[in-house]
Write a structure and sequence with these properties.
With 387 residues, the protein is an alpha/beta fold. The protein has 13 helices and 8 strands.
Amino acid sequence: MTGNAFSDGLLVVGLVFLAFHFMGYPLLVRALARRGTTVELDTDEPFLPTISLIIAAYNEAAVIAGKLENSLALDYPADRLQIVVVSDGSTDETAAIAASFAGRGVVALHDPPRNGKSAALNRGVDAATGEIVVFSDANNDFSATALRALAAHFVDPQLGGACGRKSITAAGDRQASEGDSLYWRYESAIKKWESDLGIMTTADGEIFAVRRELWQPIPPEVINDDAEITFTMVNAGYRIVYEPDAVSSELASAQLEEDFRVKVRMIAGGFQTVARHWPTLLPPRSAFAWAFLAHKLLRWLVPVLLAMVAIGSIARISTGTGAFLVVGQVLFYGIALLGWQARSRGELPRWKYVPLYFSLMNLAALLGLRRFLAGDDVTSIWQKAAR
């Protein structure tokens, strides 16, 4: 293969897969979902199984009281709701604050050693008495009827889990707010279409309900617990659905640097998920596997595809198409750099913010891939974002 043919191949493959991931796949699942039949839930006689709400809280003294007040005020029968807080490893007042709610029925668990979130969730489920366990973080609030909306789906015996909608609360003083908000609106639309097709790829651990009887302990080395639980359910032959009326609201990271660190860890965890569950995914033998590869794996590989486009464009810079693509990329990344330099001087206009956020998150994806390939212990380098 000649040098020109190789660079042309890089350019074409990069552009095709980028276009398919960002436009082709969402349009495809949207079209297929609209052709399907929507299952209406029976709301005349609400299905109200017993629920254990499990909150993993590591050094969350700033928010845990508010989270518990929100949880206790949810519109769900009090005699059918158990609230469990696992504050293992916390060195602040989280454990004491959680224990102060014991008189209102909250189960507070605390062990001094920090063993990670997966171990905390396992401990929480061991203490759970509900037929359904709902996982949540300490820094989010549920909408009042969230538990009812999630529980209603479990009338279907083939359902393994139900995931709610993650919403980012607008806050001008938080640099990641607009980017996270745009991303989660885009992501929520895709999740809803996938759910309508019965192929939702991963749930969100901030608001995720699963059948207690299907629970399998999460291995301690797992980074993305929500993805691990999703694969456990799917491999057992159960579906997971998306419920947009069950809303989990939270603030974005205060600084883009914090959001960057979170994304590095999550994407390293995403590649770990692929490595752990490759027999389910490769070769793709199910609609779920095809959806996961198109929706998730391609997203984590976007920086590789962008690099392929850059190399192919530069190799063809003497042509009109190549020059156009090179100039476009230089302008885009140049604007992102301007946004980075100006990020601390007030709210950025969207024309600067979007290129900055897109570039930063794809740099995080590239670093996440590098850390996974290098075998770095990502579980030991996690730093909690400021609340």
